[in-house]
UniProtKB/TrEMBL annotation:
Presence of the UniProt keyword Cytoplasm in the record: yes
GO cellular component, as recorded: cytoplasm
Catalysed reactions, semicolon-separated: [(1->4)-alpha-D-glucosyl](n) + phosphate = [(1->4)-alpha-D-glucosyl](n-1) + alpha-D-glucose 1-phosphate
Protein name per the record: Alpha-1,4 glucan phosphorylase
Species of origin: Neorhizobium alkalisoli
Major localisation: cytoplasm
Amino acid sequence: MDKPSSTVEIPYPAPRSSRPEIMAEEIIERLTYRIGKDAKVAKPHDWLTATILVVRDRIIDRWMESTRKAYKTGAKRVYYLSLEFLIGRLMRDAVSNLGLMSEIRDALISLGVDIDVIAGLEPDAALGNGGLGRLAACFMESMATVDIPAYGYGIRYVHGLFRQQMADGWQVELPETWLAHGNPWEFERRESSYEIGYGGAVETVGGYEDTPRYVWKPAERVIAMAYDTPIVGWRGNRVNTLRLWSAQPIDPILLDAFNAGDHIGALRESNKAEALTRVLYPADANPAGQELRLRQEFFFSSASLQDILRRHLQQYPDFTNLHEKVSIQLNDTHPAISITEMMRLLVDIHGMDFQQAWEITRETFSYTNHTLLPEALESWPVPLFERLLPRHMQLVYAINALILVEARKQKSFSDTQIRSISLIDEGGERRVRMGNLAFVGSHSVNGVSALHTDLMKVTVFSDLHKLYPTRINNKTNGITPRRWLMQCNPGLTSLIRDAIGDKFLDDTQALTELEKFADDNAFREKFAEVKRANKIQLANLVGSRMGIRLDPSALFDIQIKRIHEYKRQLLNIVEAVALYDQIRSHPELDWVPRVKLFAGKAAPSYHNAKLIIKLANDVARVINNDPSVRGLLKVVFVPNYNVSLAEIMVPAADLSEQISTAGMEASGTGNMKFGLNGALTIGTLDGANVEMKEHVGDDNIVIFGMTADEVQKVRDEGHNPRAVIEKSPELAQALNAIASGVFSPDDRSRFSALIDGIYSHDWFMVAADFDAYAAAQRTVDQIWTDPKSWYSKTILNTARMGWFSSDRTIRQYASEIWRA
């Protein structure tokens, strides 16, 4: 929201009433005059929209007050740039944070409407893929909660990430149509529109005696138009803005071409512009996909920076104090092009000296790294980058010269080190390294767990760390307890309030007061009752969607996350096959009934990840239909994982699978959600699992497998997975069953290549960690058979997870990075 153009004192309307009878009247009014429906014929989706509009009015009161306060105080603003914001459904979140849940519920009851029914109709905003996008959403809510003036900037994807369906066990990608019927939460801001250019050429302006200026003349232009969504903090004390950009053509239709009969060609520019914001993460396995991805990243980065600079000039005469009033956080490398775009805007458009612009840019930006995988640190072919963004390519070379001269002269870096820190990768196809650009263009580079941060310094950014030894710091991720406890698990929230009062609602670390109830029999029984109710809810969902009956008395073992080989869903599936063999071979033993639940999406072009989904479904079909298992083991892959599904699965989990190859998961936030909701974690010492172990205690988490150092040592010395497999009869039998077609009788070689990968190189240490993982699962069984011990441990997990609140994380960002 922007500062009013007029200086005339305008009387503001009084805040809206929170009385249920008043809100009921307003809902009928919105239904009648905004939606055009008589209450007698209104459908549930009409009631949903009318209710959202009434809630939105109450948000607007606080939104405008938050904006006025920021302008009045001149407070430093934080701008969070992210290609993803996985915000999920907003109504329950907003109503809860406003403290109006009981009032809205009563208002709707008086109208004969069930809030739970209509809230379930709200579509999930399809603006993210997984942990990165959900973290951004948690951070936006926490920034409002801890009273930091902030904007989130991203893309208003029409379809976003795909909707996942299963066809004979294979993932099928379908468009996610979350915007098909509009979005009552958003506001179009047509005045906040900016031209975004691509291609063209750079011209030099200036004579012999003048300092030359560089003018980029793009060959293509599109318009970025803003859409604002209010983000409500806890208790509604602050409302911040999520501003998403939609692409529009300069000329919507080439009328001459249309009238000449070229109806398709006439819409070419329109279609090209709309493609920019059509889909999140277009497949980049081909040149066209790579180009679209780069176009998207520059599109939202340029629009956001133009908007930030315009807003700054509304209050200040120039940009010399930009870094004192503005802090821009880059969420991963996707917005890294913002570094060069800021330089272009300051130098080329606003006439600032290059060196001054560079110092201001670096002090304004900070960068969060989310991966240690070199292939996940984006890079772009130089020819593509130069063709699409010619001026930015010049600036990359200019910045690179600055950095390399500094490294050579001041630090006496070797040729090898120079090649490592260069913004241009000269090995093979020359590419622009966006991770290096984000690093050198920021005053702060943070990891997202203690282990991840330490590894950054010795792996992907080792030489840059030597050049700038104080730049890397740690900010362990967190989750918002409002959505991931209070809203998704009202039964547990109510139980905690009865036990320790309400202090934890404002300070999650007050949950430690629950520790004294870990050995209280009455409390343990109530805790178990809440968990069982949540499991029944999940069982009902699986039954209605998939026709599979689940026993809520069984141990619910859940792994939900993006499907990737390093996250090792494959290890979990192989162990399920081995367990299946053991149950059939030893029916006389007392096996713990177990349900293994999976959910997650695979990138459309990631063949092995999609094959793992198919394997999970094939294994599930065989195991679930084998009467000899006697219902002791079931495997379920729940399709179309999103925030709303997570809100049901997380509270229902008994066991949380956090089993990534050590050293490869930056942090994880699913581990925190499960722990907060009273699940026991089985995991490796990877990402934030390390800190979780420190907080919950060694006895209240099940750790297995190699450490990050051990993984690296095995790789360096040469891993022989075949020898490992031959020493493990259970593993060998399970792999042989999968490879030979036991679970794929229609195509016996379907999974042979997948299993061959384990035998030949086992990069993700599936074979290396299998025996330790299987033994850890049997440890879990032993704990499960003693309910008192189990629930004592899970209660302590809930009690000791308060530190992992995103409020704590954001306060650390604010004090140590943003200085806000």
